[in-house]
Amino acid sequence: MNNLKTLQSVCRSYDDRQFPITPSGPTITTPLGKVRGYWKTSAKGEKFAAFEGIPYAKPPIGKRRFEAAEPVEQWKGIWDANFLVKCAQTDLIQTEMIQGEEDCLYLNIYVPRENPTRKDKLDVIVHIHGGAFMSGSGHYYSHPEYLMDEDVVFVSFNYRLGILGFLSTEDDVVPGNNGMKDQVLALKWVQKYITFFGGNPDSVTLTGVSSGACSVHLHYLSPMSDGLFHKGFSQSGTALNPFAIQDEPLMKAKLLGASLGCPTSSTHALVNCLKQRPFRHILTKVSLFHGYLFTPFSPFGPVIEKGRNAFLHKNPYYLLAKGYIQDLPWLTSNTAHEGLFPAAYIYKDLANVNEKWGEIAPFLLDYNYTLATLLWETTAKKIKKHYLGQNEEINEANFMKLVQMFSDRLFLVDAEYAVRLQGKVNKSPVYYYRFTYPGDHSTNKTVAHGEDAQYFFHNIFNRQPSCNELQMKELLVDMLINFVRTG
What we know:
Layout: H1 4-11, E1 17-18, E2 27-30, E3 33-36, E4 38-41, E5 47-55, E6 78-80, E7 83-84, E8 89-90, E9 98-99, E10 106-111, E11 122-128, E12 153-157, H2 162-166, H3 178-193, E13 199-209, H4 211-221, E14 231-235, H5 249-259, H6 267-276, H7 279-283, H8 316-322, E15 330-335, H9 340-343, H10 350-355, H11 357-364, H12 376-388, H13 399-425, E16 430-435, H14 467-486
Helix pairs in contact: 8-13, 11-12, 12-13
Organism: Asbolus verrucosus
Pfam families: COesterase
GO molecular function: carboxylic ester hydrolase activity
């Protein structure tokens, strides 16, 4: 990769965080070239090596936009792995805020050794970040200080998001799932090179939260991911959740193109035009695909592809029910109040939601594409009656009933289906837990979407955890490490 160093210097103009590199920093020699990181300290005061910003693919820019990512090439000299970057995205709530860059396919590796060798063969945890397939970054989970005391290698990475990662024209022009194929390429990188960081490519456990959890489960169903991992842990998400699969991708691609002045009669012409538009202009159009506020949260995400070499060729429910799934151990979880996402974001708008429930419910409950428009209002009324009661209104007094409604529709019902189906068709164990511990600093004693994830990563609390919370952290980390080692 002749221009890799140039690209690296460009990347650093938009780094979220950069650390000083010294000649004494940990240096690893791989077939791709040398990588130099820096030192960090674990929760128990042990030194560990951090390598942040290692490329695993060629930059998906220019002609490579909307194309499957290509493996990174060798570089000359020493690659300074001391920067963090996120993929181009809009803020999940404030969609007018655009962050990140297209050149973003980097991974981060953390090793609990001063001088890792190929003989160490440490278990590997690869984390897939959440964010509704629309936002987030691998480095949100770049503080594995707890895990570094457990003698495992931890890997996180970026993958393309939203329109840039999940546009599909439902044909061979842009089949879709480029964000998922980025994930596959990152897993292939781990298989090839993690041994040079002391990791064992024959013991890789995928973990993920929310859409990252859906991603973990989708890898069980994809032939592309066969042999790339050995266990999976999905927190607050499965492949059967309604936001795990994108609806009407071709219609969305055409709407996007029309909004940017691109021809839509030919998918070739449409995509060629979109490749010429600045990515920031493209991302300003995300709001076109939201019906109420910023819902549905995942207008762009994984699709069921047509043609050969598909990441996903059938509906996940069909694949799971028929047993077309890797027979590997799976651990999955939900929290007590999953539906606080999105309920918390509409709390100040409850009167309006109540008044316009028939119009708003299809977007909040993610059935705006799957149910005929003429059935929207009657369906919304039936759902409201079931959860709130006859003639009850959506208000503060009934707020937790609304939370339960969102929990069931967006997370819990499909999680139960997934666990029962996978347990039926696979011989490998399937584990499930419901996390109900609110923590000592919770003001309303609720346990929101993905909240158990904070106990695995040092930076998520943003405060000093209490003694009780540290005990819960120990319990959950022990559970994960036992699963990683024994399944």
